[in-house]
Design goal:
Blueprint: H1 6-9, H2 22-33, E1 40-44, H3 51-63, H4 77-80, E2 88-92, H5 99-108, E3 119-124, H6 131-142, E4 148-154, H7 162-165, E5 169-172, H8 178-192, E6 195-196, H9 198-208, H10 212-225, E7 228-229, H11 231-238, H12 243-254, H13 258-271, H14 275-295, H15 300-319, H16 326-335, H17 347-355, H18 383-395, H19 399-418, H20 422-429, E8 431-436, E9 440-445, H21 448-456, H22 458-469, E10 474-479, H23 480-489, E11 503-505, H24 509-519, E12 524-526
Parallel strand pairs: 1-4, 1-5, 2-3, 3-4, 6-7, 9-10, 11-12
Antiparallel strand pairs: 8-9
Helix pairs in contact: 2-3, 5-6, 8-9, 9-10, 12-13, 13-16, 14-15, 15-16, 19-20
């Protein structure tokens, strides 16, 4: 079988390619440079953090014929034949944990290395050894031959006898930083020609919880499911949520909007996310917001509210057990912050949070009601207007049109990103094309505020789209609930005919000219 899964294909061969664990790398490299090699090492830490990989890298460097600054050359015979070397003995203590297995090691240590400087024993999951096996191993571990090195690895250091720990140099591996995992995933995607979004890779890093092997396994699986790895694909297959989802909860709490809070919590529950993972993510999100509040010297009341939320979530995390209904408890905790008399934010407090960009643009709700009305700067988004646009979109809607438009939408987003047009970029980022015809596109947004902003800027967006792609399209934004309502009433057998649009433009001459450039003068009615 030629195919190798990603975590095996990209297992690092030397210290230069090992991600994370910088302090451990430095100590081991300096040990080789200064020729101060211990006879026994024990690597401990969470799974997937590089313990076995580091053991193999260290062993390869120790037996390398031409090491460069403590790092294996990769070119000598010992490096090339490392995986087949009789002087590198790997054992899994989970399946080789008896006293007889250890006696085989004790008997073999006195046989000199075949063609290497050291005979190296790498014993994984060493905590699985039986008590009698440990007793048989102690003497050899304490005084092995000068050319024998033991490298032990374990995820449960507390199960290793103290008499063994005292005979080894101990290295504690930490969970790999999420930013380092994300960067590594980007490089692999480029190498493997996997299309991916940065947000999705960052979310994979979060899901992996500092475990590189898990991150690569998730990436590997998703690359077989979809041509592009994005947040939507991740949500469908791993029941995860994004910071945008949590931000909508925060906005609902800020505005004491119980209906929005319960609706969003219901949506999150349907994702099937693990409750502990959800709480970790929420605590991290609210902590970052609390820090941002302090950095930008925003309302102390808002900080107190976030501190209370964080403490509440942290307490809930400690109370969870296998029998508890964690989501119900979370729902109760968050609902308690609606109209909380102890921390009641004023309009001024909320304005500060919005104006200083503590919450991102796509989920902002302006307390001055700038966005609460559907009035566009150029035309009024009435029910008649919405019905007309939906009807006209359905006239020549097709899958082919949708696929073609999605590519144009991505190209449009890239243009906006490169030209720092944030007001439009945010709308595109949080909208998904659902129905597309020859001239119309119906887009569904992740939040109510994105829909409102999108429909306020319809005319400007259409003009920008035409300017960039030289294609004339008329847009309409619906939120997810409106989209569900539409689907429930949609008649697939109905024959749709094009309806003339009546657009009410402000009396601004420039606005009129802009509208006529898109829709033609016959379709513009000034009142």
């Amino acid at each position: 079988m030629d195919y190798k899964v990603l975590y095996r294909k990209y297992r690092p061969a030397d210290f230069n390619h090992l991600v994370g664990q910088d302090s451990i790398k430095k100590i081991l490299v300096n040990s080789i440079i200064n020729d101060k090699i211990a006879h026994a090492y024990i690597f401990t830490g969470p799974r997937g953090t590089g313990k076995t990989s580091t053991a193999k890298i260290f062993a390869r460097a120790l037996n390398c014929l031409n090491p460069q600054n403590g790092i294996s050359c990769g070119e000598c015979e010992n490096c090339k034949n490392f995986n087949q070397s009789p002087d590198i003995i790997e054992l899994d203590a989970a399946s080789n944990n008896s006293v007889d297995d250890i006696r085989n090691i004790v008997d073999s240590v006195n046989i000199a290395p075949t063609n290497s400087k050291y005979k190296i024993y790498i014993i994984d999951e060493v905590h699985m050894l039986s008590t009698s096996a440990w007793n048989a191993f102690l003497k050899t571990l304490e005084e092995p031959p000068h050319n024998v090195i033991f490298i032990l690895a374990t995820t449960e250091i507390q199960k290793v006898p103290i008499t063994v720990l005292s005979r080894c140099q101990r290295f504690d591996f930490q969970r790999i930083d999420k930013a380092e995992i994300t960067e590594h995933l980007k490089k692999i995607c480029e190498e493997e020609n996997i299309k991916s979004e940065d947000d999705a890779l960052a979310e994979i890093a979060f899901l992996s919880d500092g475990c590189m092997r898990d991150a690569l396994s998730i990436l590997d699986q998703l690359s077989k499911i979809s041509e592009e790895i994005n947040i939507d694909v991740l949500k469908q297959n791993y029941g995860t949520i994004t910071n945008d989802d949590i931000e909508e909860l925060y906005v609902a709490i800020l505005h004491n909007n119980l209906d929005d809070l319960l609706t969003k919590l219901s949506d999150i529950k349907k994702c099937g996310i693990d409750i502990k993972l959800l709480l970790d993510k929420m605590i991290e999100y609210f902590l970052n917001k609390a820090i941002a509040l302090k950095q930008k010297n925003v309302s102390n009341n808002a900080f107190k509210q976030l501190k209370k939320i964080i403490n509440s979530l942290n307490d809930l995390l400690g109370k969870l057990n296998s029998n508890s209904n964690g989501f119900l408890m979370l729902e109760l905790e968050l609902v308690s912050f609606i109209n909380d008399d102890e921390v009641n934010l004023s309009s001024r407090d909320i304005n500060q949070i919005i104006s200083r960009e503590i919450i991102s643009k796509d989920t902002k709700v302006d307390v001055n009601e700038m966005l609460t009305a559907n009035d566009s700067s150029y035309y009024k988004v009435t029910k008649e207007f919405i019905d007309t646009r939906i009807n006209n979109t359905l006239v020549s809607a097709s899958k082919e049109n949708k696929l073609s438009f999605i590519e144009s939408w991505k190209e449009f987003y890239t243009y906006l990103d490169n030209n720092d047009l944030k007001e439009f970029k945010t709308i595109l980022k949080n909208s998904i094309p659902q129905i597309v015809s020859n001239d119309y596109a119906l887009l569904v947004t992740k939040s109510e505020s994105t829909k409102i902003i999108g429909n306020k800027k319809l005319h400007e967006l259409e003009i920008q789209f035409k300017k960039v792609l030289n294609k004339e399209y008329k847009f309409l934004f619906l939120n997810e609930q409106e989209w569900k309502n539409f689907l429930s009433t949609y008649d697939k057998d109905k024959k749709y005919e094009l309806i003339d649009e009546t657009i009410y433009i402000n009396k601004d001459d420039n606005s009129c000219q802009l509208a006529e450039s898109i829709f033609g003068s016959n379709n513009v009615n000034m009142e």
